[in-house]
Design a protein that fits this description.
single chain; about 325 residues; alpha+beta; 4-stranded antiparallel sheet; 7 helices
């Protein structure tokens, strides 16, 4: 007798006595159409129960897949500063997850409450945090790699990412080179298999790492970054300023012009600077005597007595 089947010995009022394959007698609910001497299955599959079970499994599977699709990133911003950090965002550009890929990266994002924030705002928080922890400094050459990984349609502007990073660093007067590009999701999958960052996966075939870019010679660095597809944006903070503009040729003072800082020159109704003519005295100042035109006269030399004198006059000087 096949395991799980029994022989019907007696049928009585909705139940039947069966002999199991183990040699035991049992009363079980009667089966429709069963007769004495038939072999019946002791554990039949009930159609309605099986259908309900299948429906529940389908709903659970669909729910898991939908939830995983919603929570999965539409775009990933992979940052390599020295720590490696990833910001995952949905199609609307809002952060769904913040991941540190190494020990420094975990320290960088510890205590971060970035879920639901716009990606660019979360990026600003990460850069400010890196500055506070000393990963970006004013007295060194800093390298920031910001790669956007697209998985599906999203609203993140790829050009806005390096612009925001450069703006923050410029305001903080931190010199840096911001390297950015946009890559497909296959690069992220390859990086995940090797347990490395996205930027490390991009530079892997060039036999270098994100942390080694700073030490490369300038020509070799430029060549590798160009081959890897990065766009370079230099951040050069302005030098110290005294607040007073340096005087050049066009800043030479002229009569009637006030060159004190913060005092604009007077303008005529036509919009041009109004300068008093040289021959017009400034109001409130005494008028200077004009010199006669031509060469200035020199004092006369002693030419001797005049040739003709009026009568009664002599050449003798008075006593």
């Amino acid at each position: 007798m096949k395991k799980g089947r029994a022989l019907v010995m007696e049928i009585d009022k909705g139940r039947m006595l069966v002999l199991t394959d183990g040699g035991c007698f049992r009363w079980v609910p009667s089966r429709r159409g069963a007769k004495v001497g038939d072999l019946v299955d002791l554990h039949p599959a009930r159609p309605h129960v099986a259908a309900a079970t299948a429906a529940v499994v389908i709903l659970l599977t669909a729910g898991i897949l939908f939830t995983s699709w919603i929570l999965s990133p539409a775009v990933i911003l992979a940052l390599d500063i020295n720590p490696s950090v990833e910001l995952w965002a949905d199609g609307a550009g809002r952060v769904v997850r913040c991941v540190g890929l190494d020990a420094d990266g975990n320290q960088l994002v510890t205590g971060a409450d970035l879920k639901g924030k716009p990606l660019l705002d979360a990026l600003e928080w990460v850069i400010e945090r890196a500055i506070a922890l000393g990963y970006l400094q004013t007295d060194q050459e800093n390298i920031v790699l910001a790669t956007l990984v697209s998985r599906r349609a999203h609203r993140v502007d790829s050009q806005a990412v390096p612009e925001r990073v450069a703006q923050i660093l410029a305001e903080r007067k931190i010199p840096a080179a911001v390297l950015s590009q946009q890559v497909p999701y296959q690069i992220k999958q390859r990086a995940a298999k090797g347990n490395i960052s996205v930027n490390a996966a991009i530079l892997e075939k060039h036999r270098t790492r994100p942390s080694e870019i700073r030490q490369l010679p300038p020509e070799e660095r430029e060549r590798i970054l160009k081959q890897a597809g990065y766009r370079v944006r230099k951040v050069t903070p302005p030098g110290p300023s005294s607040g007073v503009p340096a005087r050049g040729k066009e800043d030479t003072p002229s009569p009637g012009r006030d060159i004190r800082p913060g005092v604009p020159p007077r303008k005529s109704p036509e919009g041009k600077p109004s300068l008093p003519p040289k021959d017009r005295p400034t109001p409130g100042m005494p008028k200077e005597p004009k010199e006669p035109k031509g060469k200035p006269s020199s004092p006369p030399r002693d030419a001797g007595p005049p040739k003709h004198l009026p009568p009664g006059r002599s050449h003798r000087p008075p006593n």
